[in-house]
Amino acid sequence: MSSYYNERLKGDRGALKRALYKACGFSDADLGKPLIAIADTYTDASPGHVAFRDIAQRVKEGIRDEGGTPMTFGAIAPCDGIAEGGIGMRYILPSRDLIASSVECMVRSHGFDGLVMLGSCDKIVPGLLMAAARLDISAIFCNAGPMYPAVYKGRHWDGNIISEAIGWKERGLIDEAEFKKIEDLAEPCFGSCAMLGTANTMCSAAEAMGMALPGCATIPAVDEERLEWAYESGRAAVRLVRAGITSRQIMTKEAIGNALKLVFAIGGSTNAVMHLQAIHLEAGLGRLSLERVRDIAQVTPQVASIYPASSYDMVDYHRAGGVEAVMKELGPLLDTSCMTVTGHTVAENLSTADGTKDTAVIRHLDEPFSPRAGLAVLTGSLAPDGSVAKPAAIPDDLMDVTLPAQVFDGEDEATDAVMAGRVKPGTCLVMRYEGPKGGPGMPEMYRTMKALEGMGLSDSCALVTDGRFSGSNRGLFVGHISPEAYEGGPIAFVEDGDLVHIDVRAGKVEILVDEAVLEERRRGWHRLEKPLLPGYLGTYRKTSLSASEGALVR
Fold first, then answer.
1. For residue 160, what pLDDT is reported?
2. E strand or H helix at 39, and its extent?
């Protein structure tokens, strides 16, 4: 009986457990090896996750060849693109915490020795990493890879061309037949979306913090090389178990700092900030304040420019060297002593890595696209606890503006106004009651931003909100405004015509209204309560933290 590796299978007390596993087809020989769980988020309802049917098989082969026994369980993987624009989007951020908790429940119930996490899309990746941080188990992350871009009129696009095409059709620039053509070519193959949205940002961050094999994050989903990385991830999981290397030995304060620097250097999704805050807290490292995030941003230049910040997509980023090349260029700014899933340090991994292969996409540290980070933390009278913007995708002439407010109590109201022509150039749209509690669920303000682009307003209008943004957005947008309107934050007291000052370089977002006037408005304020469907959103509203603390359930 002592030949069993897993503690729960040893001795007479392990007999029932062994018998139950044998009912699944496992032999005594299988059960004598390390039990490696595969948290598989396969679904044929999402292009980012449909490839895991094949990837999981290669992971299993890698585990077996390295002397482990793979056991698979599933986790949900809702698609942001399919959920956007309605009640579905309110479930996307809360699903992150459900994923983390479901993985925790399965792993702790069965007492697995190691864990391989398969995920690709926006909230699934941080949910898996949060679970690993919480469990402190030997764990490795493997994604399915980005899809190839669409090609329309000689230009590469990601699937968000459809949202822009809605505006083009509204303005009479294209007809119904051309719109249908765009729909049919927009998503050309499986994989996570072709731009540097939240999905590919978080896959890149996972690699940068050492939780994925070097080179794994950016391999396109349809490339044969993707399956080899899956196989090697399975092998690495068994080696981690035998070496006794657990997730909290990898997901340290310094490693998460490396991930933040990578995200800032590539101009990644604003959502990455709250996800890395959540992972930091789950790893037992306490609260990662936005002040600390700002400090890291201030010493990190933007050395890569990827769509939506430029015309270069994820395949271009991969061919330029991907995460490894960016980290090689950032070398002096990183803590290279951090341990990784290879069993080696960042320094040891980078010693064999190449720098940039294309300076049009990834530049050298001494010749960055911008001396400032691609993301920014803004504070001020409109966001006392902080907010987040993406200067990598903001035009220079919108970096410091003062604009009159046009206020909306939600995304639907704002989007309808944009599409109906009731929003004029040079306006600051203030969208509130879309935070973690007010939304509830803190949905992405995707439709409004895309409507502004399609209607030709994104070059002159700003948008500030206590909600979130899609990683695909371009223009002057400031999200995660904290405290949110539902909790009585200053954004609740903005009125039409108030002047809003946004200075991205100085990190300021302010309402130019006397404090006495705001106090009078505060006294007459009544919280907006949106109707809720019965179920999880009510629980999330009661238990979620502020966006400034990662918006996770506590």
1. 81
2. strand 35-40
Query: Own/partner pairs for 103-109, CB < 8 Å, 24+ apart?
Result: 103/39, 103/75, 103/127, 103/128, 103/131, 103/135, 104/131, 104/134, 104/135, 106/37, 106/39, 106/73, 107/37, 107/39, 107/131, 107/135, 107/137, 108/135
Measuring CA to CA, how many Å separate 402 from each of 269, 423, 451, 482, 510? 25, 16, 22, 20, 9
Q: 396-413: per-residue pLDDT in tens?
A: 999 999 999 999 999 999
Residue with tokens 């002397």: 67
470 is catalytic: yes
For residues 51 and 129, give the distance between their C-alpha atoms in angstroms, rounded to a whole number. 20
Please tell me the number of Cα atoms within 13 Å of 36 on its side-chain side.
Answer: 32
Q: What is the reported pTM?
A: 0.96
Cβ atoms of 357 and 320 closer than 8 Å = yes
Specify the residue for token string 């200053």: 490
Catalytic residue among 102, 120, 138, 470: 470
Those residues with Cβ within 8 angstroms of residue 463's Cβ, 6 or more apart along the chain or in another chain: 428, 429, 431, 445, 448, 449, 452, 475, 476, 477, 478
For residues 35-60, average pLDDT: 98
